[in-house]
């Protein structure tokens, strides 16, 4: 049977965003058929939320409301309706509000607010259990420790290298402060992908040399010393808006030493700048740097394994204590019976823990993204001036995506 216009319109309405690769954050409303509680439960189950997570969802909802109010509504006339904010409105209620019309005629505003809140909740939910944030402090320390070993100080200042080998002068060595949770949420909300795995700059460093040529020397040192593994770099994340490599190569091929010196002087003075086509971040138009992201192999202790191992040791010790008392044969019949029951319980517990430990890795091994940013001091000072403008632009973009259909009214 040939499809009719109505059927095709419905198919395109439902499937169009998926086929076009649109983010769920950018949809005007949640595209789901949820008319009953059972429909909403099935939707949440497919999403990955279990009924046992209601307390967790309520905490995420509370955080999402605070985030919207603190970052999007502090200079706006909009307010979140009380029926949306109410603790009585759980995940299922929000899904139904976002997908089903109400009989009182107030469904449009309520629906848009439910969708706005769910956009932020969706972002936070995917942030919750990501292993990169669960072990972030251990990861941060392991990655940065080996870099710090190559930073040393003399009377003249700070250098990258080894003492006595003529290190590269550094003006600044910034260890990126671990991104605050709100900053990560904001970044996810303004990125089209809205995927936690797309955040590659949670851990990173900034190395500032005296000149742009020093920036190249810094990068060369990091590669030579295997502080950066080129095969583990993420090609799509490499951006150079500091020095035009193509133009520099042409001068090296065609010019003499005098022409090269003049060209380098123009580079350092900012007369000749790199093409900024590589910069795909609309919020950092004036930001120039060499940005690289690579994956570093991380091995860290599995805290769950260590906790079980400690519990196993305690259970074994308790079992041995009971066994010793049993051997002394100084227990009453009632105490003997109770001791035997407890020993049997401990034997089962010990066997269960041992079996679990045999299936659990003591060390967790995985690759983790790490950002390296390199620039010269003049560029660094210019970039610092535009930082607050960058953050505000990012906030405005995220606000538009979350509240877009409310702000249009």
Summarize the structure.
The chain has 409 residues and is of the alpha+beta class. The chain is built from 16 helices and 7 strands. It folds into 3 domains: 12-128, no CATH class; 144-241 and 279-297 and 369-407, Beta Polymerase, domain 2, CATH 3.30.460; 303-360.
Describe this structure in words.
By secondary structure, the protein is α+β, with helices and mostly antiparallel strands. It has three domains: 12-128, no CATH class; 144-241 and 279-297 and 369-407, Beta Polymerase, domain 2 (2-Layer Sandwich), CATH 3.30.460; 303-360. Helix content is 55%, strand content 12%. It has helices spanning 5-20, 37-47, 54-71, 82-85, 91-99, 107-128, 131-134, 136-148, 181-190, 212-224, 245-254, 257-268, 303-328, 333-358, 377-385, 387-407, and strands at 151-154, 157-160, 168-175, 204-209, 239-240, 290-301, 363-376. Strands 1-2-3-4-7-6-5 form a seven-stranded mixed sheet. Helix 5 crosses helix 6 (107-128) and helix 13 packs antiparallel against helix 14. The protein is flat.
Looking across the biggest beta sheet, what order are the strands in? 1-2-3-4-7-6-5
Q: Distance between the terminal alpha carbons, to the nearest Å?
A: 42 Å
Mind summarizing the main beta sheet? 7 strands, mixed
Q: Would you identify the CATH architecture of the largest domain?
A: 2-Layer Sandwich
Q: Briefly, what CATH class of the largest domain? A: Alpha Beta
What gross morphology would you assign?
A: flat
How much strand? 5-15%
| Count of beta strands | 7
Element-level helix/strand string: HHHHHHHHEEEHEHEHHEHHEHH
How many discrete domains? 3
Total helices: the number is 16
């Amino acid at each position: 049977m040939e499809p009719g216009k109505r059927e095709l319109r419905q198919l395109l309405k439902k499937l169009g965003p998926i086929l076009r690769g649109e983010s769920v954050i950018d949809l005007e409303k949640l595209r789901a058929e949820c008319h009953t509680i059972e429909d909403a439960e099935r939707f949440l189950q497919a999403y990955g939320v279990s009924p046992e997570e209601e307390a967790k969802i309520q905490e995420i909802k509370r955080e999402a409301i605070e985030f919207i109010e603190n970052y999007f509504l502090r200079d706006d006339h909009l307010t979140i309706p009380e029926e949306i904010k109410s603790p009585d409105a759980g995940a299922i209620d929000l899904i139904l509000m976002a997908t089903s019309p109400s009989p009182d005629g107030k469904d449009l505003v309520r629906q848009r607010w439910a969708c706005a809140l769910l956009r932020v909740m969706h972002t936070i939910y995917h942030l919750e259990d990501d292993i990169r944030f669960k072990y972030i402090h251990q990861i941060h320390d392991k990655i940065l420790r080996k870099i710090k070993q190559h930073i040393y100080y003399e009377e003249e200042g700070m250098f990258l290298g080894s003492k006595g080998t003529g290190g590269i002068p550094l003006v600044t060595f910034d260890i990126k402060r671990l991104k605050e949770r709100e900053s990560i949420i904001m970044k996810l909300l303004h990125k089209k992908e809205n995927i936690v795995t797309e955040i590659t700059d949670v851990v990173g460093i900034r190395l500032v040399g005296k000149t742009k040529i020093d920036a190249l020397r810094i990068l060369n040192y990091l590669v030579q010393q295997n502080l950066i593994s080129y095969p583990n770099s993420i090609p799509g994340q490499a951006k150079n808006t500091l020095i035009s490599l193509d133009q520099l190569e042409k001068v090296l091929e065609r010019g003499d030493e005098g022409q090269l010196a003049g060209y380098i002087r123009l580079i350092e003075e900012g007369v000749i700048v790199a093409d900024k086509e590589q910069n795909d971040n609309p919020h950092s138009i004036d930001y120039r740097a060499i940005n690289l992201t690579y994956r570093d192999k991380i091995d860290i202790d599995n805290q769950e394994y260590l906790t079980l191992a400690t519990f196993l040791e305690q259970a074994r010790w308790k079992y041995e204590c009971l066994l010793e008392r049993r051997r002394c044969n100084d227990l009453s019949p009632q105490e003997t019976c109770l001791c035997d029951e407890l020993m049997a319980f401990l034997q089962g517990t010990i066997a269960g823990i041992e079996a679990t430990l045999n299936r659990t890795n003591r060390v967790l091994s995985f690759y983790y993204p790490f950002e390296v940013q390199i620039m010269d001091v003049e560029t660094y000072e210019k970039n610092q001036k535009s930082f607050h403008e960058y953050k505000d632009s990012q906030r405005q973009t995220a606000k538009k995506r979350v509240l877009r259909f409310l702000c249009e009214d």
